Structures are given as C-alpha cells and as structure tokens.
Amino acid sequence: MCGIIAYAGHQPATPIVLQGLRRLEYRGYDSAGLAFIQQGIIHSIKASGKLDALVDKTSVSSNPLLATCGMGHTRWATHGVPNEINAHPHLSNDGAFALVHNGIIENYRELKDELIAKGYVFYSETDTEVLINLIAECRKSTPDNLRAFQAAVKRAQGAFALVLLCRDEPETIYATRKSAPLLAGIGAGENFVASDVTAFLASTRRVIFLDEGDIIRITPNSYQVLSLEDLRPLEKKIHQIEWDIQSAQKGGFKHFMLKEICEQPQVLRSALAGRVDLEAGRVRLPELEGLARPSRLRIVACGTSYNAGLWASSLLEEWGRIPCVVEIASEFRYRKPILGRDELVILISQSGETADTLAAMQVARECGCATLGLCNVIGSSLAREVDRVIYTQAGPEISVASTKALCSQMALLTLLALYWGQEAGALEGDRLKKLLADFSAVADTLEKHLPKLRVDVELFSLRVAAARNVFFLGRGRNYALALEGALKLKELSYIHAEAYAAGEMKHGPIALIDPEFLTIAIAPHDELFPKTFSNIEEIAARSGPILAITENGGDKHLRGEIKWDIPPLADPFTSFAILPMLQLLSYEAASYLGKDVDQPRNLAKSVTVE
Ligand code: AGP
C-alpha cells in the first residue's frame, strides 16, 4: 500500500523521484505527490489520479529541476478519500517539514486533539498530517531535527514507513519503518530510500534492508543507520541485488501482466534449478537441512498465495505423507488456533509484506511452532522474520494481479511434497524419478504451447467479456485453480465471478443457472473427470452456457460446450498449463473491456494494512 521514494544526490531530484514513483505505482495509484527544497522553501506538488497527472503538473510547475534532494509518494488511500488535499507529502503548519507515509497511525485521533489544543490547523483527513505537525511540535523542545523525528515517531502507534524532509537541512533525508517495508539504496554520490528496490534499481543494486525501529539519515555522500530507541549507530550489511532493471520493465509486452504470464516457463526452470537432480532422482532443499520432519503442516496466506497453498495441500498429504491444513491469514490470526509444537507453519507471500500473513507468523511463533516462509521478495519482512525461508525466485512481479508468483509458489510446494515423500521413503521404486522427469518437462511444454494459448484465448475471452456473472468450477486441485480463475476475473474485469467445488453446485448455487450465467468448468481428463462431467451435464440441462477447459480425452464426452484444450502434461502438472489459461482469459477479457489491467481499481499490490 503506497509507494515511497526519496533521493539525495547530485542530479536533479524530481525526474529521479518521478521515475521511482513510476516503478512503485503498482503499490497504490489513486493520487501521487512529491516534495523538494528550493531557495529555502519546501515545495510540494500533488495530483489526484494516476501518476501521469503528477507528471503533467510537475512539468508546468516553477522549475523544480534544480533541487537535488527530494521525495515522492504514490497513494492507496486509508484515511480520507483519494484527492489532492489528502495526497502526500504533507507539510507541517510552519512549512519547516514534509512527510510521506505508508501505513496507518492508529492513535492519530488523540494526537490530533492534542495538537488542535495547541493551535495546529489540519487541512487534510489524513493521519500523516497529524504526525508531521507532531514532528514540528517536538522540534520546539529537541536540539535537532533527528531528535524531533525520533520523539514524534516514538509516540506513534501502528504500522508505518516514513520519510522526512527538513527545510533547514536541504540535502538530508530521514526515514524510519515499523511493520511496513523500507530500504535504502547506496549509490556513488547519491543515496535512496524506497519501499521497494525496483524504485532505484536503475541507479544502484546495493541495498540496506532496514529493520524495525531503524532510523536512517542519507545525504548525497553519506548514510547512517541509527536505533530509534536511543540513536545508537548501527552496523548494516549492504546486499547486492541480483534483479536487473530489465526484469522490472515491460520488455516489449503491452502490459506487465502479459509479460509475467509469459515468463512462467522461465519461472518454473528457475524454481527447479539446483533443486532437482534428475539423474539421482532426488530433490535437494538445503533450506530445510536439519529441520525435523513435521507432524502436521499448517499453510497460512492471503489471496492468490492462499490459493497456492490450497492447490498444494493434497500433494503434501499424498506424496509428502504429512497432514496439511490451509488457512486464510486474516482469519487465522484472530481465531486463537491450537497448534502443536511439532507442527510446521508455512507462510506464503509474494511480497513478504502482507500484514495479515506477518501477523499469522507471529501467532505461530507464540504457539512455539517452527515457521517456514515461501517468499518472492528478497529481504522482505517475512523473509527476514521466519525461521527458514525458501525464495520462490520468480523475479519482480509488477502487475498488481499476481500471476507468475503463483506458478513459482506451486512449483516450490510441489518440490516440498516430493522432498518430504522422498525423506519418508513414501515414493517407491522409480516413482520419484518419473515424477521429477515429468515435472522438469513442464517448462518446455508450456513454452511450446503458450503462443497457441494466446491465440486461442482471444475467441474465448470475448464470451467471458460479454458475461455479467461467471462460475468457475473444479474438483480437487482444480477447485483451487477455480478460485484463482474467479479472483483474477473479478480483479481485472470487474465481472462478478465465484468459484465452487463442482460437487457443491447442486447444494444451492445451481439455482442461479440460466442461459445468461456462464460457467467455466476446469475438467482435465483425470480420475475426477466423470464426476466433473456429471456436474457440467447438470448445468447444461438447465440451459447454462459452459466453457470447458479440458483435454482431448474429455472432448468426446462434452457435446454442446465450448471446449478449450489443455496442453498435454501428466497429472498433476496439468495445473501449470491450466493456470496461464485462466490468467490469459481474464487478461484478454479485461483488455477487451478497456480495463486498466496492470492497475485494477481499488487494489494495491502489497497489502500492508489489515
Ligand atoms: C492477487 O492477484 C492479489 N494481488 C492478492 O490476492 C495477493 O495475492 C494477496 O494480497 C497476497 O499477497 P502476497 O502474496 O504478497 O502476500
């Protein structure tokens, strides 16, 4: 939620801040703003709507290009509607300080009352404006800006990443974080603070991951990390980021989402690289070395990452021979779960910053369970706080709708199931070897068939775009994919879509079926096909139109339905082809309807609030 970038260097700051905001726009895009200091005055430019509005406004403003230190913010509204007044940065009443903020100050009301009593005036509805005036107030009784920042932040409750600009220190940026992402980029004669590395990847790959309660001070030629508690200097490791800027660009594709869908063969190769030894028929997961075999698995995640867990749970039981329960993080964190100490809690998160998933990790900890994170973003809060982390190595996912990250999560969970099966000797004879060979062949098959899927989908997506309501049906692992299909369609096209386990239709939802209500049935020709087929027949008997995602084997059974063939893969690896089919379907339907595919309304990529 919200993207932050700050720059202190020798180049004009505004274009760098705007470029950084462009890369962070996926984090929030209902309004944006920037601030810089010129001739002893803090200037701020803000615009509601997409970043382009701010770019236009900046280009006509009074020469902001001279400032070499500045900061910017792209917003996903929490307090107050998305308009220009509520957009960040916010300035203190005296104009001496400006602040950008990602997160929520929970005790802002009492702080606001206190400041109003002292004569402060508030122009916005935000919690951020309260904090910046508190900093100004604290400055009256502290010897410098750093101490004023420290004093005010110490009084703030909630989750936040904050960047502060001070009028009397035009070349300095202060920043701090608590339960919200923030990192520093260390360059040559220039330094950055941002929510995400992609914001400054074009300039530097040297990164400091800030910990909870760190304060950082950057200038063009220096940086210093201090403890918020007592301003004690802290030693920090500089990490080298492997991602390059190309991986965070569209690379000739119309949208990030399409690029990311098409990257899935490579994502699969990267997930398996070094982890599958085909000759020996073994899975190697050094991240799990020394970890005792868990008695139970509890997977906790949100949204698409939850769907990954649900998809994999049957494999973890069938191959890994470990009982597995999957839970939604926002429910799990408050329901006082009973967890055994020998239970392993697996937290899945692309961003590693999802507030509910982080809170679930805390609950698992308090219960004394070991935690394993499956995470894409290197150095994210989840990755740093779990006992063990397996990186999914999908590369930066910029589109708000998650696609390739899910593919990588499914791949890693498959490897986990095979690994635990291997360790328990549960996959007999050459079974493991055969499964690994089949799994390793998926990337090539998918790569070969993706171009055809992209052509086929255009026809099917028109049917979907014309629908007002859509059911996605599947059984077993395909039910998890149905959930994902419905989530993608809702997110991108705003068409009402629901997923059901196919066998549940007769228990109520079938009442909705009429000639207008489209059903997308995921029906590969596996052992459950006859059952799914019966459910399709029941819908057809009630004149419900059906798009069946099936295999050649299923064709002869399905008569009047529209059929879309799944590329030939062995079960359960068919899922790795069905997934991009569902993603493409929503992508094309939404594009046809003229929706903003990479930045759907009301959403943000990383949900760092409850
Ligand atoms: C999926 O398209 C969504 N963007 C959303 O459901 C997402 O998967 C969810 O917010 C969890 O995010 P995480 O994987 O970063 O924790």
What topology emerges from the helices and strands here?
Elements: E1 3-8, H1 13-24, E2 31-38, E3 41-48, H2 51-59, E4 69-75, E5 90-91, E6 97-105, H3 108-117, H4 128-139, H5 145-155, E7 158-166, E8 173-178, E9 183-186, E10 191-194, E11 206-209, E12 214-219, E13 222-227, E14 239-240, H6 256-262, H7 264-272, E15 276-277, E16 282-283, E17 296-301, H8 303-318, E18 324-328, H9 329-332, E19 343-349, H10 355-366, E20 370-375, H11 381-385, E21 388-391, H12 404-423, H13 431-465, E22 469-474, H14 477-493, E23 496-501, E24 518-523, H15 529-540, E25 546-550, H16 552-555, E26 562-565, H17 575-592
Helix pairs in contact: 3-4, 4-5, 6-17, 7-12, 7-13, 8-12, 8-14, 13-17, 14-17
The chain binds 2-deoxy-2-amino glucitol-6-phosphate.
Strand neighbour order, sheet with most strands? 3-2-4-1-10-9-11-14
Query: What is the domain tally?
Result: 3
Helix content: 25-40%
The assigned CATH architecture of the largest domain is 4-Layer Sandwich
What is the averaged pLDDT score?
93
Tell me the fraction of residues in β-strands, as a range.
Answer: 15-25%
Question: What is the name of the CATH class of the largest domain?
Answer: Alpha Beta
Shape: globular
Describe the sheet with the most strands: 8 strands, antiparallel
Alpha carbon gyration radius: 26 Å
Number of helices: 17
Instruction: Provide the CATH superfamily of the largest domain.
Output: Aminohydrolase, N-terminal nucleophile (Ntn) domain
Oligomer: single chain
- Give the tally of β-strands: 26
- The poorly predicted ranges are none
First-last Cα distance: 11 Å
Could you say which small molecules are bound to this protein? 2-deoxy-2-amino glucitol-6-phosphate
